[in-house]
Give the backbone structure.
Amino acid sequence: MIVDRGDFFSLKINPCWAVLLLCLLLSACGEPLVLEEATPLGAERAALESIPGYPQGSYEYQLIERVGLKAEQGGMIDLRVWYPFSEEPAPVIIFSHGNWSDKDRYDNILSHWASYGFVVIAGTHLDGKNMARGIFNALRHGNDGLIAQRVADINYLLDHIEELQELLPLRLDANRVAVAGHSFGAFTAQQFSGARAITEKGDISADDRRVNAVVALSPPGPMFDEITAESWTQMHGPVLMSTGTHDVNAQFWPDWRDHKMSFDTAPDGHQYALVVQGADHYLGNLICRPDRDAEPQHDALNVVNAVSTLFLLAYVNGDLQAMEWLDQLELSATSGGFAELHTH
């Protein structure tokens, strides 16, 4: 969410990103992964719609495609904001997109949260918009630079909620805040609950008590030198992560369970993991990459929306009924084995 400047020809090439580029080139020639057989949704719609958070919420909402917040170093930060029509101060979700994606490609999830009364604020990070810009800034800043800038972006929004409120037609509740993200952005969100990027210069984390809860959609497993098996050993709840049994990548995460490492290695206490049968990294083409040549995974999207909304209502709004549902939800039975919710 900053204006980037620099001379491409003066770049020092980061070796980790050189490896990434090589992997991307080789992937076109590699054998596709054999996907696990997936259990289809085996539930009546009425059973699923009985789960609070599954149907569309009761709030009318609106999208503001561009909200300009003054940047610390000058210029403007362009934000995309979904907001509900509410007379009461609204809880806030700050959303962090995946690598090479942007703020505009997640409406299928963000609008659902808005329908339950949340203001959802999304910006575009230094590695976002497209592959070319992402690679350029990766080579320029390195992995640790991109990770640190993402944290700084979210921190800036947390620090300027009052200024954001002046730009929106409703009041924001700064005491009810979540950080959410997808893929690289899921790790960014987890950093606000104590997840760490481990670098030679020290850990990059942002454990922040202003954040009531974190939603991490398909977070990475270990990646490069900075995101390791130790990255989540200090991550406290409440955190919800999600993945799917087709959430695989031949170069980085050939086993979908790698995405679940953040749940498996985190300390006990308010940790949740949603696993959806047959769901991939982009729910087909419903998030992050809408131009992807893949079938949309609407059933998976609906389950992700339902469980994430229930989690947000419970831990951000303090909704006791939502908390009771979350604690007692037998998702595997309700969905006919299509989805499971784990906790510790």
User: Anything to note?
Assistant: Residues 191 and 271 are 14 Å apart (CA to CA). Residues 131-159 form the longest helix (29 residues).
